Amino acid sequence: MTQIGRIYLLVVLFFLYTPIIVMMAMGFNESQLYELPFTFSFRWYEALLGNKQLLTAGMNSIIIAVITSVLATSLGTLAATALARRTFRGKSLLQLLLLPPIAIPWLITGTAMLVFFYWSGIGRGMHALLIGHVALAIPYVVLVVGTGFKTIRADLEEAAMSLGSTPVHAFFTITLPLLYPSILGAALFAFAVSLDQFVISYFLATPGYSTLPVQIYSAIRKGFTPEINAISTLLLLGSMTVILIFARFAKPGDTSDKR
Amino acid sequence: MTNVKVDAVAKTYGSTKVLTDISTDFVEGSFTSLLGPSGSGKTTLLRIIAGFIKPDEGVVTIGNNDVTNVPVWGRNIGMMFQSYALFPHMTIAQNVAFGLERRGIKGAAARKEVDRALEMVRLSGFADRMPKQLSGGQQQRVALARAMVIKPSVLLLDEPLSALDRRLRQEMQVELLRIQRESGLTTIFVTHDQEEALTLSDTVAILDKGRIVQTGKPAAVYERPTTRFAAEFLGDSNFLEGKVEGGAVRLASGTVVRTASMLPANGTDVTLAVRPEKMMISAGEPGTNRLDARITTVIYAGPVLSYLLETPDGMSVKLFAQNKDGVVLKQGDTISLDWSPEHTIAVAS
Protein backbone atom coordinates (compact mmCIF):
# COMPACT_ATOMS: atom_id res chain seq x y z
CA MET A 1 0.00 0.00 0.00
CA THR A 2 2.71 2.47 0.99
CA GLN A 3 4.65 1.24 -2.06
CA ILE A 4 1.77 2.12 -4.38
CA GLY A 5 1.39 5.47 -2.63
CA ARG A 6 5.05 6.23 -3.09
CA ILE A 7 4.97 5.36 -6.82
CA TYR A 8 1.83 7.44 -7.25
CA LEU A 9 3.52 10.42 -5.61
CA LEU A 10 6.58 10.03 -7.82
CA VAL A 11 4.44 9.93 -10.97
CA VAL A 12 2.59 13.06 -9.89
CA LEU A 13 5.81 14.92 -9.12
CA PHE A 14 7.34 13.70 -12.38
CA PHE A 15 4.56 15.08 -14.56
CA LEU A 16 4.35 18.25 -12.49
CA TYR A 17 8.01 19.18 -12.49
CA THR A 18 9.65 17.53 -15.53
CA PRO A 19 8.22 19.96 -18.10
CA ILE A 20 9.29 22.87 -15.90
CA ILE A 21 12.80 21.50 -15.45
CA VAL A 22 13.14 20.83 -19.19
CA MET A 23 11.84 24.32 -19.92
CA MET A 24 14.40 25.84 -17.52
CA ALA A 25 17.24 23.72 -18.90
CA MET A 26 16.49 24.66 -22.50
CA GLY A 27 16.90 28.32 -21.60
CA PHE A 28 20.58 27.51 -21.07
CA ASN A 29 20.96 25.51 -24.32
CA GLU A 30 22.86 27.04 -27.21
CA SER A 31 20.49 25.72 -29.88
CA GLN A 32 17.54 27.86 -30.92
CA LEU A 33 15.54 24.82 -32.01
CA TYR A 34 15.96 22.98 -28.69
CA GLU A 35 18.35 20.53 -30.30
CA LEU A 36 20.57 18.14 -28.40
CA PRO A 37 23.39 17.69 -27.45
CA PHE A 38 23.03 20.23 -24.69
CA THR A 39 25.54 23.04 -24.91
CA PHE A 40 25.51 25.35 -21.93
CA SER A 41 25.15 29.02 -22.80
CA PHE A 42 23.86 32.31 -21.41
CA ARG A 43 23.03 33.34 -24.97
CA TRP A 44 19.29 33.58 -24.46
CA TYR A 45 19.62 35.54 -21.26
CA GLU A 46 21.80 38.01 -23.12
CA ALA A 47 19.23 38.16 -25.92
CA LEU A 48 16.53 38.71 -23.31
CA LEU A 49 18.34 41.79 -22.01
CA GLY A 50 17.99 43.23 -25.53
CA ASN A 51 14.33 42.23 -25.88
CA LYS A 52 12.59 45.39 -24.68
CA GLN A 53 9.09 44.09 -25.42
CA LEU A 54 9.43 40.94 -23.29
CA LEU A 55 11.16 42.76 -20.45
CA THR A 56 8.58 45.55 -20.37
CA ALA A 57 5.77 43.03 -20.43
CA GLY A 58 7.44 41.14 -17.59
CA MET A 59 7.77 44.33 -15.57
CA ASN A 60 4.13 45.20 -16.32
CA SER A 61 3.03 41.79 -15.11
CA ILE A 62 4.85 42.18 -11.82
CA ILE A 63 3.59 45.74 -11.27
CA ILE A 64 0.01 44.73 -12.03
CA ALA A 65 0.29 41.67 -9.80
CA VAL A 66 1.68 43.68 -6.87
CA ILE A 67 -0.96 46.41 -7.14
CA THR A 68 -3.71 43.81 -7.60
CA SER A 69 -2.43 41.92 -4.59
CA VAL A 70 -2.42 45.02 -2.37
CA LEU A 71 -5.82 46.31 -3.52
CA ALA A 72 -7.61 42.96 -3.60
CA THR A 73 -6.19 41.96 -0.20
CA SER A 74 -7.23 45.24 1.45
CA LEU A 75 -10.71 45.27 -0.05
CA GLY A 76 -11.22 41.54 0.37
CA THR A 77 -10.08 41.59 4.01
CA LEU A 78 -12.52 44.41 4.79
CA ALA A 79 -15.30 42.45 3.09
CA ALA A 80 -14.37 39.27 4.96
CA THR A 81 -14.38 41.23 8.24
CA ALA A 82 -17.86 42.54 7.58
CA LEU A 83 -19.12 39.09 6.59
CA ALA A 84 -17.54 37.45 9.64
CA ARG A 85 -18.34 39.98 12.35
CA ARG A 86 -21.35 42.04 11.32
CA THR A 87 -24.94 41.30 10.55
CA PHE A 88 -26.59 43.36 7.86
CA ARG A 89 -29.34 43.14 5.32
CA GLY A 90 -28.46 41.08 2.25
CA LYS A 91 -25.41 39.47 3.90
CA SER A 92 -26.18 35.89 2.89
CA LEU A 93 -26.99 36.98 -0.67
CA LEU A 94 -23.66 38.78 -0.85
CA GLN A 95 -21.85 35.71 0.49
CA LEU A 96 -23.57 33.61 -2.15
CA LEU A 97 -22.72 36.02 -4.99
CA LEU A 98 -19.02 36.03 -4.08
CA LEU A 99 -18.43 32.44 -5.08
CA PRO A 100 -19.73 32.00 -8.68
CA PRO A 101 -17.03 34.28 -10.23
CA ILE A 102 -14.47 31.67 -9.20
CA ALA A 103 -16.33 29.05 -11.23
CA ILE A 104 -17.25 31.18 -14.27
CA PRO A 105 -14.80 30.46 -17.12
CA TRP A 106 -12.32 33.31 -17.55
CA LEU A 107 -13.15 33.48 -21.24
CA ILE A 108 -16.72 34.45 -20.38
CA THR A 109 -15.68 36.87 -17.64
CA GLY A 110 -13.12 38.38 -20.02
CA THR A 111 -15.64 38.81 -22.85
CA ALA A 112 -18.13 40.34 -20.45
CA MET A 113 -15.53 42.76 -19.11
CA LEU A 114 -14.39 43.74 -22.57
CA VAL A 115 -17.95 44.47 -23.66
CA PHE A 116 -18.80 46.31 -20.44
CA PHE A 117 -15.59 48.35 -20.35
CA TYR A 118 -16.07 49.31 -24.00
CA TRP A 119 -19.70 50.27 -23.41
CA SER A 120 -19.03 52.21 -20.21
CA GLY A 121 -16.06 54.09 -21.64
CA ILE A 122 -13.51 52.52 -19.29
CA GLY A 123 -11.81 51.16 -22.37
CA ARG A 124 -8.66 49.03 -22.36
CA GLY A 125 -5.14 49.42 -21.03
CA MET A 126 -3.44 49.25 -17.65
CA HIS A 127 -6.31 50.70 -15.62
CA ALA A 128 -8.78 48.27 -17.23
CA LEU A 129 -6.43 45.36 -16.57
CA LEU A 130 -6.11 46.42 -12.94
CA ILE A 131 -9.87 46.67 -12.44
CA GLY A 132 -10.29 43.26 -14.03
CA HIS A 133 -7.58 41.58 -12.01
CA VAL A 134 -8.70 43.09 -8.70
CA ALA A 135 -12.30 42.07 -9.33
CA LEU A 136 -11.14 38.58 -10.17
CA ALA A 137 -8.89 38.24 -7.11
CA ILE A 138 -11.27 39.59 -4.44
CA PRO A 139 -13.41 36.43 -4.12
CA TYR A 140 -10.28 34.38 -3.44
CA VAL A 141 -9.17 36.83 -0.77
CA VAL A 142 -12.60 36.84 0.90
CA LEU A 143 -12.59 33.06 0.87
CA VAL A 144 -9.10 32.67 2.36
CA VAL A 145 -9.42 35.46 4.95
CA GLY A 146 -12.97 34.35 5.79
CA THR A 147 -11.65 30.88 6.59
CA GLY A 148 -8.99 32.51 8.77
CA PHE A 149 -11.70 34.37 10.69
CA LYS A 150 -13.37 31.09 11.59
CA THR A 151 -10.33 30.20 13.72
CA ILE A 152 -10.53 33.43 15.73
CA ARG A 153 -13.24 33.62 18.36
CA ALA A 154 -15.33 36.79 18.41
CA ASP A 155 -15.02 37.00 22.19
CA LEU A 156 -11.32 37.88 21.87
CA GLU A 157 -12.37 41.24 20.44
CA GLU A 158 -15.04 41.54 23.10
CA ALA A 159 -12.45 40.90 25.79
CA ALA A 160 -10.27 43.65 24.31
CA MET A 161 -13.24 46.03 24.27
CA SER A 162 -14.08 45.21 27.88
CA LEU A 163 -10.52 46.24 28.72
CA GLY A 164 -10.94 49.60 27.00
CA SER A 165 -10.26 49.01 23.30
CA THR A 166 -12.40 50.67 20.70
CA PRO A 167 -13.54 48.25 17.97
CA VAL A 168 -10.89 49.67 15.63
CA HIS A 169 -8.11 49.26 18.22
CA ALA A 170 -9.32 45.72 19.00
CA PHE A 171 -9.23 44.89 15.29
CA PHE A 172 -5.67 46.12 14.84
CA THR A 173 -4.18 44.73 18.06
CA ILE A 174 -6.05 41.42 18.31
CA THR A 175 -7.75 40.33 15.11
CA LEU A 176 -5.23 41.51 12.55
CA PRO A 177 -2.15 39.88 14.16
CA LEU A 178 -4.05 36.60 14.46
CA LEU A 179 -5.36 36.91 10.92
CA TYR A 180 -1.98 37.79 9.45
CA PRO A 181 -1.07 34.33 8.08
CA SER A 182 -4.44 34.16 6.29
CA ILE A 183 -4.01 37.67 4.92
CA LEU A 184 -0.52 36.87 3.70
CA GLY A 185 -1.84 33.72 2.05
CA ALA A 186 -4.65 35.69 0.45
CA ALA A 187 -2.20 38.30 -0.85
CA LEU A 188 -0.12 35.55 -2.39
CA PHE A 189 -3.21 34.06 -3.95
CA ALA A 190 -4.21 37.41 -5.44
CA PHE A 191 -0.67 37.91 -6.72
CA ALA A 192 -0.72 34.50 -8.39
CA VAL A 193 -4.19 34.99 -9.89
CA SER A 194 -2.99 38.24 -11.46
CA LEU A 195 0.40 36.97 -12.61
CA ASP A 196 -1.19 33.87 -14.17
CA GLN A 197 -3.99 35.74 -15.83
CA PHE A 198 -4.00 35.41 -19.62
CA VAL A 199 -7.53 35.51 -21.04
CA ILE A 200 -8.69 38.70 -19.38
CA SER A 201 -5.33 40.39 -19.89
CA TYR A 202 -5.40 39.42 -23.55
CA PHE A 203 -8.81 41.07 -24.02
CA LEU A 204 -7.97 44.20 -22.09
CA ALA A 205 -4.39 44.74 -23.26
CA THR A 206 -3.63 47.38 -25.89
CA PRO A 207 -0.89 47.25 -28.53
CA GLY A 208 1.23 49.52 -26.34
CA TYR A 209 0.49 47.83 -23.01
CA SER A 210 0.48 44.12 -22.34
CA THR A 211 1.53 41.62 -19.71
CA LEU A 212 4.00 38.79 -19.92
CA PRO A 213 1.54 35.95 -20.69
CA VAL A 214 0.02 38.03 -23.49
CA GLN A 215 3.46 38.94 -24.82
CA ILE A 216 4.63 35.33 -24.68
CA TYR A 217 1.54 34.26 -26.54
CA SER A 218 2.14 36.73 -29.37
CA ALA A 219 5.83 35.86 -29.41
CA ILE A 220 5.03 32.16 -29.81
CA ARG A 221 2.76 32.95 -32.75
CA LYS A 222 5.66 34.72 -34.46
CA GLY A 223 8.15 32.00 -33.63
CA PHE A 224 9.42 30.41 -30.47
CA THR A 225 12.84 31.38 -29.11
CA PRO A 226 14.53 30.22 -25.90
CA GLU A 227 14.36 33.82 -24.66
CA ILE A 228 10.89 32.85 -23.51
CA ASN A 229 12.37 29.99 -21.52
CA ALA A 230 14.77 32.45 -19.98
CA ILE A 231 12.19 34.97 -18.82
CA SER A 232 9.87 32.17 -17.67
CA THR A 233 12.71 30.78 -15.57
CA LEU A 234 13.35 34.15 -13.97
CA LEU A 235 9.67 34.62 -13.22
CA LEU A 236 9.39 31.12 -11.83
CA LEU A 237 12.38 31.58 -9.51
CA GLY A 238 10.93 34.88 -8.32
CA SER A 239 7.52 33.50 -7.44
CA MET A 240 8.98 30.29 -5.98
CA THR A 241 11.09 32.38 -3.61
CA VAL A 242 8.05 34.36 -2.47
CA ILE A 243 6.05 31.19 -1.88
CA LEU A 244 8.83 29.44 -0.01
CA ILE A 245 9.35 32.44 2.25
CA PHE A 246 5.62 32.42 2.95
CA ALA A 247 5.55 28.70 3.63
CA ARG A 248 8.50 29.02 5.98
CA PHE A 249 7.07 31.82 8.10
CA ALA A 250 3.31 31.51 7.93
CA LYS A 251 2.97 27.72 7.96
CA PRO A 252 -0.31 27.71 6.02
CA GLY A 253 -2.87 25.38 7.49
CA ASP A 254 -1.26 25.46 10.92
CA THR A 255 -3.71 27.09 13.29
CA SER A 256 -2.42 25.44 16.43
CA ASP A 257 -1.55 28.70 18.14
CA LYS A 258 -5.07 30.03 17.75
CA ARG A 259 -8.24 29.02 19.48
CA MET B 1 -25.47 51.41 48.74
CA THR B 2 -26.26 50.55 45.19
CA ASN B 3 -23.42 50.25 42.76
CA VAL B 4 -25.03 48.91 39.62
CA LYS B 5 -28.64 49.63 38.86
CA VAL B 6 -30.79 48.33 36.06
CA ASP B 7 -34.07 50.18 35.64
CA ALA B 8 -36.99 49.10 33.45
CA VAL B 9 -34.71 47.50 30.87
CA ALA B 10 -36.30 45.77 27.89
CA LYS B 11 -34.84 44.16 24.81
CA THR B 12 -36.59 42.66 21.81
CA TYR B 13 -35.01 40.76 18.91
CA GLY B 14 -37.39 40.63 15.99
CA SER B 15 -40.63 39.46 17.57
CA THR B 16 -38.95 37.79 20.56
CA LYS B 17 -39.03 39.67 23.84
CA VAL B 18 -35.70 38.64 25.35
CA LEU B 19 -36.01 40.90 28.39
CA THR B 20 -39.19 42.45 29.75
CA ASP B 21 -39.13 45.30 32.26
CA ILE B 22 -36.07 44.27 34.27
CA SER B 23 -35.37 46.40 37.33
CA THR B 24 -32.83 45.35 39.91
CA ASP B 25 -30.10 46.77 42.10
CA PHE B 26 -26.69 45.29 42.68
CA VAL B 27 -25.38 46.26 46.10
CA GLU B 28 -21.80 47.55 46.38
CA GLY B 29 -19.39 44.69 47.08
CA SER B 30 -22.02 41.98 46.70
CA PHE B 31 -21.85 38.82 44.65
CA THR B 32 -25.03 38.34 42.63
CA SER B 33 -25.86 35.37 40.45
CA LEU B 34 -28.18 35.63 37.50
CA LEU B 35 -29.58 32.15 37.36
CA GLY B 36 -31.83 30.75 34.68
CA PRO B 37 -32.13 28.19 31.92
CA SER B 38 -30.78 28.96 28.45
CA GLY B 39 -33.03 31.44 26.73
CA SER B 40 -34.06 33.06 30.02
CA GLY B 41 -32.26 36.29 29.08
CA LYS B 42 -29.55 36.14 31.76
CA THR B 43 -26.67 36.51 29.31
CA THR B 44 -28.46 39.30 27.46
CA LEU B 45 -28.89 41.16 30.77
CA LEU B 46 -25.18 40.75 31.57
CA ARG B 47 -24.23 41.96 28.10
CA ILE B 48 -26.48 44.98 28.51
CA ILE B 49 -24.74 45.82 31.80
CA ALA B 50 -21.38 45.31 30.06
CA GLY B 51 -22.39 47.53 27.17
CA PHE B 52 -22.18 45.00 24.36
CA ILE B 53 -25.92 45.29 23.79
CA LYS B 54 -27.96 48.47 23.92
CA PRO B 55 -31.36 48.02 25.59
CA ASP B 56 -34.47 49.11 23.68
CA GLU B 57 -35.80 50.71 26.84
CA GLY B 58 -34.55 51.42 30.32
CA VAL B 59 -31.48 52.80 32.05
CA VAL B 60 -28.24 51.19 33.27
CA THR B 61 -26.35 52.99 36.03
CA ILE B 62 -22.82 52.14 37.24
CA GLY B 63 -21.67 54.10 40.27
CA ASN B 64 -23.51 57.38 39.90
CA ASN B 65 -23.27 57.49 36.15
CA ASP B 66 -25.98 56.71 33.63
CA VAL B 67 -24.01 54.51 31.21
CA THR B 68 -26.92 53.48 29.00
CA ASN B 69 -25.34 55.25 26.03
CA VAL B 70 -21.71 54.63 26.97
CA PRO B 71 -20.06 51.91 24.83
CA VAL B 72 -18.39 48.96 26.53
CA TRP B 73 -14.87 50.40 26.21
CA GLY B 74 -15.87 53.47 28.20
CA ARG B 75 -17.51 51.65 31.11
CA ASN B 76 -14.50 50.39 33.07
CA ILE B 77 -15.82 46.89 33.58
CA GLY B 78 -13.92 43.68 34.21
CA MET B 79 -15.28 40.75 32.30
CA MET B 80 -14.59 37.04 32.24
CA PHE B 81 -15.76 34.86 29.38
CA GLN B 82 -16.74 31.22 29.18
CA SER B 83 -13.88 30.52 26.77
CA TYR B 84 -11.24 32.43 28.83
CA ALA B 85 -10.67 34.67 25.75
CA LEU B 86 -6.96 35.15 26.40
CA PHE B 87 -5.15 36.77 23.49
CA PRO B 88 -3.23 33.80 22.02
CA HIS B 89 -0.48 35.90 20.42
CA MET B 90 0.49 37.66 23.64
CA THR B 91 2.33 36.42 26.73
CA ILE B 92 0.52 36.16 30.05
CA ALA B 93 2.09 39.45 31.15
CA GLN B 94 1.03 41.17 27.92
CA ASN B 95 -2.49 39.82 28.33
CA VAL B 96 -2.76 41.19 31.85
CA ALA B 97 -1.14 44.50 30.87
CA PHE B 98 -3.52 45.05 27.94
CA GLY B 99 -6.13 46.98 29.92
CA LEU B 100 -3.46 48.95 31.81
CA GLU B 101 -1.94 50.06 28.54
CA ARG B 102 -5.34 51.34 27.39
CA ARG B 103 -5.37 53.42 30.56
CA GLY B 104 -1.97 54.89 29.85
CA ILE B 105 -0.13 52.78 32.44
CA LYS B 106 3.10 51.47 30.92
CA GLY B 107 6.60 50.36 31.73
CA ALA B 108 7.64 49.70 35.33
CA ALA B 109 4.32 50.86 36.81
CA ALA B 110 2.43 48.42 34.59
CA ARG B 111 4.90 45.65 35.36
CA LYS B 112 4.31 46.13 39.09
CA GLU B 113 0.53 45.95 38.70
CA VAL B 114 0.82 42.86 36.50
CA ASP B 115 3.04 41.11 39.04
CA ARG B 116 0.62 41.92 41.83
CA ALA B 117 -2.35 40.65 39.82
CA LEU B 118 -0.58 37.41 38.92
CA GLU B 119 0.38 36.96 42.55
CA MET B 120 -3.27 37.39 43.52
CA VAL B 121 -4.25 34.46 41.30
CA ARG B 122 -1.16 32.47 42.39
CA LEU B 123 0.49 32.51 38.97
CA SER B 124 3.68 34.43 39.68
CA GLY B 125 6.39 33.07 37.44
CA PHE B 126 4.04 32.46 34.52
CA ALA B 127 4.39 36.00 33.15
CA ASP B 128 6.45 35.11 30.10
CA ARG B 129 4.54 32.02 29.02
CA MET B 130 2.03 31.92 26.20
CA PRO B 131 -1.64 31.14 26.94
CA LYS B 132 -1.57 27.80 25.15
CA GLN B 133 1.17 26.59 27.51
CA LEU B 134 -1.22 26.90 30.46
CA SER B 135 -3.95 24.52 31.62
CA GLY B 136 -7.60 25.51 31.45
CA GLY B 137 -7.74 26.43 35.12
CA GLN B 138 -4.58 28.51 34.88
CA GLN B 139 -5.90 30.32 31.81
CA GLN B 140 -9.08 31.08 33.70
CA ARG B 141 -7.06 32.61 36.53
CA VAL B 142 -5.11 34.74 34.06
CA ALA B 143 -8.44 35.94 32.68
CA LEU B 144 -9.46 36.88 36.22
CA ALA B 145 -6.18 38.73 36.80
CA ARG B 146 -6.60 40.57 33.51
CA ALA B 147 -10.13 41.62 34.44
CA MET B 148 -9.17 42.70 37.98
CA VAL B 149 -5.92 44.53 37.27
CA ILE B 150 -7.73 47.52 35.72
CA LYS B 151 -9.62 48.09 39.00
CA PRO B 152 -13.02 47.88 37.32
CA SER B 153 -16.21 49.32 38.77
CA VAL B 154 -17.91 45.98 38.42
CA LEU B 155 -16.84 42.43 37.65
CA LEU B 156 -19.01 40.61 35.11
CA LEU B 157 -18.67 36.85 34.79
CA ASP B 158 -20.28 35.03 31.88
CA GLU B 159 -20.35 31.38 32.96
CA PRO B 160 -16.58 31.46 33.39
CA LEU B 161 -16.34 28.11 35.16
CA SER B 162 -18.55 25.99 32.93
CA ALA B 163 -15.68 24.85 30.70
CA LEU B 164 -13.72 23.43 33.65
CA ASP B 165 -14.08 19.92 35.01
CA ARG B 166 -15.84 19.38 38.32
CA ARG B 167 -12.90 19.35 40.72
CA LEU B 168 -11.20 22.31 39.08
CA ARG B 169 -14.48 24.19 39.07
CA GLN B 170 -14.84 23.76 42.82
CA GLU B 171 -11.27 25.00 43.34
CA MET B 172 -11.95 28.01 41.16
CA GLN B 173 -15.17 28.75 43.06
CA VAL B 174 -13.20 29.01 46.29
CA GLU B 175 -10.52 31.09 44.58
CA LEU B 176 -13.08 33.39 42.97
CA LEU B 177 -14.92 33.92 46.22
CA ARG B 178 -11.67 34.68 48.11
CA ILE B 179 -10.56 37.24 45.53
CA GLN B 180 -14.01 38.79 45.32
CA ARG B 181 -14.20 39.12 49.12
CA GLU B 182 -10.69 40.59 49.36
CA SER B 183 -11.31 43.12 46.62
CA GLY B 184 -14.84 44.02 47.68
CA LEU B 185 -15.75 44.28 44.02
CA THR B 186 -19.40 44.23 43.00
CA THR B 187 -19.73 41.02 41.02
CA ILE B 188 -22.43 39.80 38.68
CA PHE B 189 -22.23 36.17 37.72
CA VAL B 190 -24.25 34.46 35.02
CA THR B 191 -24.77 30.74 35.46
CA HIS B 192 -27.20 27.96 34.77
CA ASP B 193 -25.62 25.86 37.53
CA GLN B 194 -27.87 26.25 40.57
CA GLU B 195 -25.39 24.73 43.00
CA GLU B 196 -22.74 27.20 41.89
CA ALA B 197 -25.19 30.06 42.32
CA LEU B 198 -26.12 28.95 45.84
CA THR B 199 -22.50 28.41 46.90
CA LEU B 200 -21.08 31.69 45.66
CA SER B 201 -23.76 34.32 45.90
CA ASP B 202 -24.92 36.90 48.38
CA THR B 203 -27.95 37.35 46.17
CA VAL B 204 -29.56 35.10 43.61
CA ALA B 205 -31.81 36.46 40.88
CA ILE B 206 -33.80 33.81 39.05
CA LEU B 207 -34.73 34.62 35.47
CA ASP B 208 -37.41 32.98 33.39
CA LYS B 209 -38.53 34.01 29.91
CA GLY B 210 -36.93 37.43 30.14
CA ARG B 211 -38.21 38.35 33.59
CA ILE B 212 -36.68 38.21 37.05
CA VAL B 213 -39.09 35.95 38.89
CA GLN B 214 -37.43 36.06 42.31
CA THR B 215 -34.50 37.79 44.00
CA GLY B 216 -33.06 37.19 47.43
CA LYS B 217 -30.43 35.54 49.58
CA PRO B 218 -29.71 31.98 48.42
CA ALA B 219 -31.28 30.43 51.53
CA ALA B 220 -34.37 32.61 51.30
CA VAL B 221 -34.93 31.84 47.64
CA TYR B 222 -34.32 28.15 48.22
CA GLU B 223 -36.50 27.83 51.32
CA ARG B 224 -39.28 30.15 50.18
CA PRO B 225 -39.68 29.94 46.41
CA THR B 226 -42.54 32.13 45.27
CA THR B 227 -43.21 30.47 41.94
CA ARG B 228 -43.40 26.95 40.68
CA PHE B 229 -40.58 27.78 38.25
CA ALA B 230 -38.25 28.97 41.03
CA ALA B 231 -39.07 25.93 43.16
CA GLU B 232 -38.31 23.64 40.27
CA PHE B 233 -35.28 25.36 38.77
CA LEU B 234 -33.45 25.98 42.03
CA GLY B 235 -33.22 22.53 43.56
CA ASP B 236 -35.85 19.84 43.36
CA SER B 237 -39.47 20.08 44.45
CA ASN B 238 -42.54 17.94 44.81
CA PHE B 239 -45.71 19.71 43.74
CA LEU B 240 -49.05 18.96 45.31
CA GLU B 241 -52.15 20.43 43.71
CA GLY B 242 -55.45 20.94 45.41
CA LYS B 243 -58.16 23.34 46.57
CA VAL B 244 -58.13 25.59 49.61
CA GLU B 245 -60.49 24.30 52.26
CA GLY B 246 -60.74 25.73 55.76
CA GLY B 247 -57.17 27.04 56.06
CA ALA B 248 -55.64 23.90 54.57
CA VAL B 249 -55.41 22.29 51.12
CA ARG B 250 -57.41 19.25 50.07
CA LEU B 251 -55.64 17.23 47.35
CA ALA B 252 -57.56 15.38 44.62
CA SER B 253 -57.00 12.15 46.56
CA GLY B 254 -58.84 13.65 49.53
CA THR B 255 -55.71 14.00 51.67
CA VAL B 256 -55.63 17.29 53.58
CA VAL B 257 -52.27 19.08 53.67
CA ARG B 258 -51.50 21.94 56.02
CA THR B 259 -49.15 24.76 55.22
CA ALA B 260 -47.56 27.72 57.00
CA SER B 261 -47.98 29.81 53.85
CA MET B 262 -50.76 32.36 53.46
CA LEU B 263 -53.56 30.80 51.44
CA PRO B 264 -56.12 32.41 49.17
CA ALA B 265 -59.89 32.12 49.67
CA ASN B 266 -61.66 28.78 50.09
CA GLY B 267 -62.22 26.88 46.84
CA THR B 268 -59.25 28.42 45.02
CA ASP B 269 -56.86 26.06 43.17
CA VAL B 270 -53.42 26.13 44.74
CA THR B 271 -50.01 24.49 44.18
CA LEU B 272 -47.85 23.47 47.13
CA ALA B 273 -44.11 22.82 46.84
CA VAL B 274 -42.21 20.49 49.18
CA ARG B 275 -38.45 19.87 48.92
CA PRO B 276 -37.64 16.14 48.63
CA GLU B 277 -35.13 16.37 51.51
CA LYS B 278 -37.76 17.87 53.83
CA MET B 279 -39.87 14.73 53.55
CA MET B 280 -39.08 11.92 55.95
CA ILE B 281 -39.93 8.29 56.20
CA SER B 282 -42.69 8.43 58.79
CA ALA B 283 -41.83 8.43 62.45
CA GLY B 284 -45.52 8.95 63.25
CA GLU B 285 -44.89 12.39 64.72
CA PRO B 286 -48.01 14.47 65.41
CA GLY B 287 -48.63 17.79 63.65
CA THR B 288 -47.11 16.72 60.36
CA ASN B 289 -48.50 16.20 56.90
CA ARG B 290 -48.61 12.60 55.75
CA LEU B 291 -48.81 10.65 52.50
CA ASP B 292 -48.65 6.93 51.77
CA ALA B 293 -46.68 5.94 48.69
CA ARG B 294 -45.06 2.98 47.02
CA ILE B 295 -41.37 3.05 46.05
CA THR B 296 -40.91 2.76 42.26
CA THR B 297 -37.20 3.55 41.92
CA VAL B 298 -34.25 3.58 44.31
CA ILE B 299 -31.19 5.67 43.40
CA TYR B 300 -28.16 4.97 45.56
CA ALA B 301 -25.79 7.95 45.39
CA GLY B 302 -23.51 7.31 48.37
CA PRO B 303 -24.30 9.88 51.06
CA VAL B 304 -27.83 10.42 49.79
CA LEU B 305 -30.54 7.98 48.79
CA SER B 306 -33.16 9.15 46.32
CA TYR B 307 -36.50 7.40 46.24
CA LEU B 308 -39.05 7.93 43.53
CA LEU B 309 -42.50 7.05 44.84
CA GLU B 310 -46.07 6.90 43.64
CA THR B 311 -49.18 7.57 45.71
CA PRO B 312 -52.24 5.31 45.28
CA ASP B 313 -53.89 7.94 43.04
CA GLY B 314 -50.88 8.09 40.72
CA MET B 315 -49.05 11.21 41.96
CA SER B 316 -45.22 11.08 41.74
CA VAL B 317 -43.21 12.06 44.80
CA LYS B 318 -39.47 12.31 45.27
CA LEU B 319 -37.72 11.76 48.61
CA PHE B 320 -34.09 12.37 49.56
CA ALA B 321 -32.91 10.48 52.63
CA GLN B 322 -29.54 10.69 54.39
CA ASN B 323 -27.71 7.42 54.24
CA LYS B 324 -27.27 7.29 58.04
CA ASP B 325 -27.64 3.64 58.98
CA GLY B 326 -27.02 1.95 55.64
CA VAL B 327 -30.61 0.71 55.39
CA VAL B 328 -31.86 0.91 51.84
CA LEU B 329 -35.56 0.46 51.22
CA LYS B 330 -36.59 -1.72 48.32
CA GLN B 331 -38.59 -1.05 45.23
CA GLY B 332 -42.23 -2.00 45.80
CA ASP B 333 -42.18 -1.18 49.54
CA THR B 334 -45.07 1.02 50.64
CA ILE B 335 -44.10 3.68 53.18
CA SER B 336 -45.61 6.71 54.91
CA LEU B 337 -44.03 10.11 54.37
CA ASP B 338 -44.02 12.89 56.95
CA TRP B 339 -43.24 16.54 56.54
CA SER B 340 -43.85 19.73 58.37
CA PRO B 341 -46.38 22.41 57.34
CA GLU B 342 -43.41 24.81 57.75
CA HIS B 343 -41.85 23.23 54.69
CA THR B 344 -45.01 23.26 52.64
CA ILE B 345 -44.86 26.34 50.44
CA ALA B 346 -47.73 27.70 48.38
CA VAL B 347 -46.31 28.81 45.02
CA ALA B 348 -47.76 30.63 42.06
CA SER B 349 -48.03 28.34 39.08
Summarize this structure briefly.
With 259 residues, chain A is mostly helical. Chain A contains 12 helices and no strands. Chain A starts with a helix and ends in a 9-residue tail after the last helix.
What can you see in these coordinates?
- The complex is a heterodimer of chains A (259) and B (349).
- By secondary structure, chain A is an all-alpha fold.
- Chain A folds into two domains: 1-41, no CATH class; 52-250, MetI-like fold, CATH 1.10.3720.
- Helix content of chain A is 76%, strand content 0%.
- Chain A has twelve helices and no strands.
- Chain A has helices at residues 2-26, 43-50, 52-85, 91-98, 100-103, 106-120, 126-149, 154-162, 167-196, 199-204, 212-222, 227-250.
- The longest helix of chain A is centred in the N-terminal third of the chain and has 34 residues, at 52-85.
- Chain A is globular and about 70 Å long.
- Chain B has 349 residues and is an alpha+beta fold.
- Chain B has two domains: 2-229, Rossmann fold (3-Layer(aba) Sandwich), CATH 3.40.50.300; 236-347, OB fold (Dihydrolipoamide Acetyltransferase, E2P).
- Chain B is 24% helix and 35% strand.
- Chain B contains eight helices and 20 strands.
- The longest helix of chain B is centred in the middle third of the chain and has 18 residues, at 166-183.
- The radius of gyration of chain B is 24 Å and the shape is elongated.
- The two termini of chain B are 34 Å apart.
- The mean pLDDT of chain B is 89.
- The chains are: A mainly alpha (259), B alpha+beta (349).
- At the A-B interface, helix 8 and helix 9 of A face strand 6, helix 2 and helix 4 of B.
Fold-level CATH name of the largest domain in chain A: MetI-like fold
Helix content range of the residues of chain A, please?
A: over 70%
The secondary-structure class of chain A comes to: mainly alpha
Strand content of chain B is 25-35%
Supply the CATH architecture of the largest domain in chain A: Orthogonal Bundle
Radius of gyration of chain B, taken over Cα atoms and rounded to an integer in Å: 24 Å
Spatial separation of the terminal alpha carbons of chain B: 34 Å
Strand residue percentage of chain A? under 5%
Query: Looking at the structure, what is the overall shape of chain A?
Result: globular
Number of strands of chain A: 0
Q: How many domains in all of chain A?
A: 2
Which CATH class of the largest domain in chain B?
Alpha Beta
Residue stretches of chain B low in confidence (pLDDT < 50, at least 5 long) are none
